[in-house]
Amino acid sequence: MQGEPMQGEPMRRCVSPDSAALADAVRALRDGQVIACPTEAVWGISCDPHSDAAVARLLRLKARDPAKGLIVVAACMDQLAPWLDGLDYALYAPLRASWPGPVTWLVPDNGFAPALVRGDHTSVALRVTDHPGMQALCEAFGGPLVSTSANRAGEPPAMSAADARALFGEALGAVVPGELGEYPRPSQIRDLASGRVLRR
Predict the structure, then answer these.
(1) Which secondary-structure segment (H or E) carries 198?
(2) pLDDT for 52-98, tens place per residue?
(3) How far, in Å, CA of 97 to CA of 81, rounded?
(4) What is each CA distance from 6 to 40, 90, 97, 197, in whole angstroms?
(5) Would you list the domain boundaries of the chain?
(6) Model's pTM, two decimal places?
(7) In this structure, how many other beta carbons lie within 10 angstroms of the beta carbon of residue 88?
(8) Cα dist. 146→93, 100, 106, 141, 185 in Å?
(9) Helices (H), 6-51
(10) Measured between alpha carbons, how far is 135 from 143 in angstroms, rounded to an integer?
């Protein structure tokens, strides 16, 4: 049913990164760099969604087709307010029912999403994370971040900091320490307008 949270394994309440690690990561993000960090199910790479140079750098690292767009994650719905501005009131219900949690919603773009984040779509992929490390990172940065699996297109995602470093090396501005959540797979993706599940 539309709006029901995805069922799955409960997530370990892992320890958030310490303040020094967060400060290093935030400095890198504000400098337009790409960082690696643990997420709900796999290691990911993140950057400032409003830095075209950073997003382009992330896409090159992944060898990802820019047309596909990218997911943006936040610590709370308030951080997504500009992205949700103008949304029909009725469509907030499924967002509130499933966030924070492992459901990414394709939300109609109101013109706020940068073109490189949106890709060739009329919607933008948004999630409020319940991973403590990602929440702390978004809070320290002061807003949402691009979040995508740490891998090259078509290859398995990194499952550890060592994997992420081996893949991207000095191209990373920072590697945030921490543990993965215990969800068995990356977030479900659903279309907000139709409720259709695009990725289970």
Answers:
(1) strand 197-199
(2) 999 999 999 999 999 999 999 999 999 999 999 999 999 999 999 99
(3) 17
(4) 13, 20, 10, 11
(5) 19-199
(6) 0.89
(7) 9
(8) 24, 16, 14, 12, 18
(9) 19-30
(10) 10
DSSP letter string over 92-107?
A: HHHHHHH-SSSEEEEE
DSSP letter for each residue of 114-166? -HHHH-S-SEEEEEE---HHHHHHHHHHTS-EEEEESS-TTSPPP-SHHHHHH
Q: What are phi and psi of 79, to 5 degrees?
A: -65, -20
Q: What whole-number distance in Å separates Cα of residue 48 and Cα of residue 186?
A: 21
Q: Are 140 and 26 in contact (CB under 8 A)?
A: yes
User: Residue 93: which of 8, 199, 7, 4 has the closest Cα?
Assistant: 4
143-180 tens-digit pLDDT: 999 999 999 999 999 999 999 999 999 999 999 999 99
Fold of 19-199: DHBP synthase (3.90.870)
